[in-house]
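We modelled each protein-ligand pair independently. The example shown here corresponds to the flavin mononucleotide entry; the chain sequence is given first, followed by the ligand as SMILES.
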Amino acid sequence: MNMKLEELSPLYEYQEGMPWNPVEKVIMERRSIRGFKKEPLPDTMIERILEAGRFAPSAGNAQPWRFIVVKSPEILAAMEKDAVRVIKFFMFLLDYTRTGFLLRLIKKPLAKFYIRILGNELHPVPFELMSQIALGKTKVFHDAPTLILMVEDSRGVSCPPMDIGICGENIVLSAHSLGAGSCWIGLIKVLMYLPWWRKRFGIRKPYRLEVCIALGWQKPKADGAVPREAQVIEWFDRGLNDAPRYTKQGVKS
Ligand SMILES: Cc1cc2nc3c(=O)[nH]c(=O)nc-3n(C[C@H](O)[C@H](O)[C@H](O)COP(=O)(O)O)c2cc1C
């Protein structure tokens, strides 16, 4: 597979070994941006980016989403402050790696209990990120001048969180294609422990808020590509009872 990003192929054509086309280039190049200029994107640009979300596919075409655009510096600052507060509280309860022996005796079983019931939330990656935030080494919303809250309508068909993911990916790809930076922020969900934020954004059943997208002009250049696993692809392309054949991603078959 040709990974060169400089020369581009035309859209709607395929020839073996041809360079990426503009859509593929946008997909391959997009990175999470965690440093933004103060000045927000123009409203017309945000509206245009949200159009890419509107046209996302969803099960049964239920479109189980609502978009909330937060641009008020005052509200953004309050969200950051409160998110850090909640994260600090969680880390105080659960982070047994940075405490003395006695506290560790109490915290470790508590943490293990929560890890069991909240498995994905307390995965080592968000756990480490939360501990960095609690230590003031990084920010929850990365000082983004705009947040798009991806409000999920749980009455959607089949699996609304999946629809939200697809819709959000359209948004971040559109943003990147227009020269803007974005970062998914799952940690916004910590604000949902605080009733005033649920009230402020009208998040009550059947609505849920699990993720938002930080948007803006990127400040520092993003890091290079983060590593991606090359998965084994299993092909069932022969007879009913034939064994599958296997190829590895990124390797010419
Ligand atoms: C659902 C979701 C939630 C995420 N939450 C956060 C977050 O809270 N904070 C953050 O800095 N990055 C967050 N990320 C960004 C991932 O860390 C990032 O996509 C991943 O490391 C791959 O890097 P890349 O986006 O630059 O390719 C999230 C990504 C997704 C898809």
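The chain has two domains: 22-71+147-216, 77-134.
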